[in-house]
Fold this protein.
Amino acid sequence: MVTKNKQENSEIIEKSIQHLEYKGFENIKADIAGYPTPKSYLNKERDTKITPDIVAEKNGRTYFFEISLKTNKESLLKSKLLFLDALSRMNSNRFKIITTKGHYRFTDSILSALNLSVKTPIRI
């Protein structure tokens, strides 16, 4: 999720965290108030920081979760998704995408444009 949207949609992040806790994830870090902040990564080309929406652990593996919502800044979302996917593959971690009702088609179009259609989003 783009930084501007994180403040507006913090309830979706909280719902996602509750879902992950129910599924057995531990040591959850989220980019909202009340939770430890996940590690940020610097994109030197655009001079921006990339922070995953949620980072959690399960069975000794680290999972990166990105919440995909409709946005006017598609290029930022696409670059963030590609970066997190590459980072997770590089470190033998997992990368999952979370979406909600009303955003499924947008998420599917973004994933197919990025050639990440193998990933099936978690629907909350």
